[in-house]
């Protein structure tokens, strides 16, 4: 296989992965959050290498103050009316 064709396939695969990630974050924020948490928990175990633990802490989803309806960004509900 030619190098140019291989590079083309790699760029297309990267574009497809990025697109899928964006759609998943928009449409299924709870699922993405659970997946990130599961991956991070596997990486931060004490018997793992230090760089894997650091990667796990970086992948881990941010903590939320409460349980949102979908477990996502906690801003999917209607906005309250402004009080004058």
Helix content: 55-70%
Major β-sheet annotation: none
Specify the structural class.
mainly alpha
Radius of gyration: 19 Å
Protein name: DUF6587 family protein
Transmembrane segments: 6-24
Region (Disordered): 64-84
Organism: Stenotrophomonas bentonitica
Would you write up a description of this structure?
The chain crosses the membrane at residues 6-24. It comes from Stenotrophomonas bentonitica. Keywords: Membrane, Transmembrane, Transmembrane helix. Residues 64-84 are annotated as: Disordered. This is DUF6587 family protein. This protein is mainly alpha-helical. Helix content is 60%, strand content 0%. The protein has three helices and no strands. The protein has helices spanning 3-27, 29-43, 50-59. The chain is flat and about 65 Å long. The protein starts with a helix and ends in a 25-residue tail after the last helix. The relative contact order is 0.10.
What features would you highlight for this structure?
84 residues; mainly alpha; 60% helix
Briefly characterize the structure.
The protein is an all-alpha fold. It is built from 3 helices and no strands.
Q: Which secondary structure elements does this structure contain, and how are they paired or packed?
A:
Elements: H1 3-27, H2 29-43, H3 50-59
